Amino acid sequence: MSCPTFKVSVGIPVFGLGFTSNNQLILGGGGGASRSGVKNKLASYKIDIRRKDLEEDATFDFAATEDAPMCLDVHPNGPYVVAGVNGSEQDIKDGKNNNCRTFKILEDKLELEKAVNTLESKKAEDYQRVVRFNESGSLVATGTTDGRVQVFKYPDFESVSPAITVSQDDEVLDVDINLENEKLTCVLRDGLKLINLRGKNVGQVVQTISSATVIKKGTAHFRAFRYGRGFTKDFGFAVVNGVTKPAAYIVKYDAYSLDQVKVVKVGNKPITAFAISQDGAILAFASADLSITLLDALSFKVCCSFVLNDHDPNTIGRLLLVSKRLTDSPSHALLSALTDAY
């Protein structure tokens, strides 16, 4: 089953995007600190479904010496977005890289409210790879390429615990906070790590799940993890990509014990991006073959899928908007980005 879609050129490589509670589109991207002529910015857009177009409401341009936003997450209820943006190379060397920044989304501008540091590394190539609000927006978690995770109270950015180094030689690929706000699950290639957010063991890794428990024969890597909600509140979902034998799997876990419930092969190409709808009913993933698939989160049946089979060298960044209304809930409008690396 195909999905109705439309494409819009936005003029920059896109590294992160999301929707506000009133269906405004927020995206971040750019050419980075080393590519002149391509701005690094956050932008907000109104989506005109009838005209199949985007109307830019506001932008925030970062300094030419700063990097592009490499990740972002939009507050689930309020007009706020948190983005990971490295400062200048000199700021990084001086230990003044306040890379995690929160903005208020106004009608005609994006207003910087606060910036804090989440990176220990002083290497310009390290950055904050992921940021994630909890379901209520009262907590925000970050993960970095130098193997650190951190959870803050929002909006004051008070640390729930000191930053936690979960790996000395691997980057954090994904993070998510459970619905009870008691646990943080972080994703490394070789394993999931469960971290306590309450009690005497706050900030400590209390459980590790190896990727070898999913694929018994051959090597596999974790790529993403999301806790369910609504229809799927009792489950968590992980993406695992086979390495020895290329394939993509979604693993269903018990949300409380992280016991494995089910493993489903969903493709032959690695999954590169993964999302769950706000009501927990739909899983969406993008694959390395430029396909995007929407699944029913309970049955794992394909709701719709399509392949991006064109590649326009004149377009630096293109957005693909997927509007599939399986119910009357706007949470079934899912969005993915195709970033052309030129």
UniProtKB/TrEMBL annotation:
Membrane topology: Single-pass membrane protein
Subcellular location: Endoplasmic reticulum membrane
Name the record gives this protein: Uncharacterized protein
Keyword Flavoprotein belongs to the record: no
Protein keywords: Endoplasmic reticulum, ER-Golgi transport, Membrane, Protein transport, Repeat, Transmembrane, Transmembrane helix, Transport, WD repeat
GO BP term, pick one: regulation of COPII vesicle coating
One example GO MF annotation: guanyl-nucleotide exchange factor activity
Transmembrane segments: none
Superkingdom of origin: Eukaryota
Example of a GO cellular component annotation carried by this entry: endoplasmic reticulum membrane
